[in-house]
Amino acid sequence: MSDTIFAVATGRGKSGLSVVRVSGPDAAAALESFQIRSLIPRRASLRRLMARDGGVIDEAVCLWFPAPASFTGEDTLEFHCHGALSVVSLMLELLGQIPGFRLAQPGEFSRRALDNGRLDLASAEGLSDLIDSETEQQRRQAIRQLMGGLSREVDGWRAELIGVLALFEAELDFSDEGDVDTGVLHEAGARLTRLRDQMASILAAGIRGERVREGIIVVLAGAPNAGKSTLLNALAQRDVAIVSPIPGTTRDIVEARLDLGGYPVTVLDTAGLRTSSDIVEQEGVKRMLARAAVADIVLWLQRADELQAGLPAELEDVTGIVIPVVTQIDRAPAGGDGIAISALTGEGMSQLFSVLGELSTRLAGSGGESALLTRARHREAVAEALESIDRALGILHSTGTELVVEEVRIAMRAVARVTGHVGVEHVLDQLFSQFCIGK
Ligand code: GDP
């Protein structure tokens, strides 16, 4: 028997309403404790919550969801109280006094939903992503995953792999020598090929889903005083970086998060590229190069009055897209290649925004539909399954059936990891620890 857990499901601080949620085998004890007469399941009822001493705690809308038809699959109660700190803290204190009740840990309601089969792992990740989503594309991608977009696809693959296994097993049961009829081999081959093509097309979206989830990384690179901090502020339209005329002010990394056409973009301002004797600044330059190396986009800034030809050697190895930007064009006429801007007067800024917007759509968009694979672990599992299917197809007509069956089993286990049907305990612990309390 598990504990009965409770928590505030809404945000912290003063608000009109706060939802206090209770879930577990003894949830009904909270009704008794607050002297609430029986509630009709799933119907909102306005009730007075009474303390033991006869005082009224609050007037609240109460909801009763008996197991198993609740979010967690357990008996669940929701109190929609007034969002006063005083009300909420008294509620939590009184609930904590009920035997068998304790405060929920982060993500514990969702974890129980998963344990009780109300959510699978991919949907729980979708829920976590939805709560964290800031932009429209993040919301779309997360809600799709929460509603089972990825799970349905993966369950379909798994069912198909089971179907292929069943083909072989039926054959092996009936043939003495372990021979498989060529008709069966052809059918298995056709089905595996179709499956491989489906998986490959989903995998082809690559890391787009991860970019939507984690944000597209834009690194501002350039010599000290090129105007990186000023540009960051202009992009963020608020002051996030310290701007100063003394070279080397930005030693660490400062970031601004932008929403470009629904795609999340994180712009990182970094230490200027130059050889410095200052240890702290050297460290900053090192970090800048490390970030630039993994950035999706590097904006290479050069002052209009200090233009040099070609990229600096340090930026030659970056894998992202390098966009030259000529800055401070209000000081000197814009020459050279690149987007010409003045962060001070705003000239050229709309062009820069639109180039960044287009690049973001190209890097993270997948033709209108949101990507199905949104985490590295999804991509790795599908790639592993795909490799096994390829190996199975490669040996289908040449070796014994056992090896083929084994590859199909490996593929099945790999796809089952996506929805959490096998071997994902560590993923669960990590995921739920990132949830907020009350979810
Ligand atoms: P960083 O070292 O690359 O981050 O450069 P900063 O953003 O700190 O800018 C260096 C100096 O150039 C500061 O004095 C800024 O005020 C100035 N500056 C930056 N952008 C512009 C611009 O577009 N026009 C003018 N006139 N000055 C600028």
Q: Could you outline the blueprint of secondary structure elements for this entry?
A:
Blueprint lengths: L3 E5 L6 E9 L4 H6 L11 E6 L5 E10 L10 E8 L1 H12 L4 E3 L4 H8 L5 H12 L3 H11 L2 H26 L7 H22 L4 H7 L1 E7 L5 H9 L17 E7 L2 E7 L9 H16 L2 E7 L17 E7 L11 E2 L8 H16 L11 H20 L5 H19 L5 H9 L6
Parallel strand pairs: 1-6, 7-9, 7-10, 10-11, 11-12
Antiparallel strand pairs: 1-2, 2-5, 3-4, 4-5, 8-9
Helix pairs in contact: 4-5, 6-7, 6-13, 7-12, 12-13
The protein binds guanosine-5'-diphosphate (GDP).
What does this protein look like?
- By secondary structure, the protein is α/β, with parallel strands linked by helices.
- It has 3 domains: 4-115, Gyrase A, domain 2 (2-Layer Sandwich); 134-205 and 373-418, tRNA modification GTPase MnmE domain 2 (Four Helix Bundle (Hemerythrin (Met), subunit A), Up-down Bundle), CATH 1.20.120; 212-367, Rossmann fold.
- 44% of the residues lie in helices and 18% in strands.
- It is built from 14 helices and 12 strands.
- The chain has helices spanning 28-33, 85-96, 108-115, 121-132, 136-146, 149-174, 182-203, 208-214, 228-236, 279-294, 349-364, 376-395, 401-419, 425-433, and strands at 4-8, 15-23, 45-50, 56-65, 76-83, 101-103, 216-222, 254-260, 263-269, 297-303, 321-327, 339-340.
- A 6-stranded mixed beta sheet has the order 3-4-5-2-1-6.
- A hairpin with a 5-residue loop joins β3 and β4 (56-65).
- The two termini are 21 Å apart.
- It binds guanosine-5'-diphosphate.
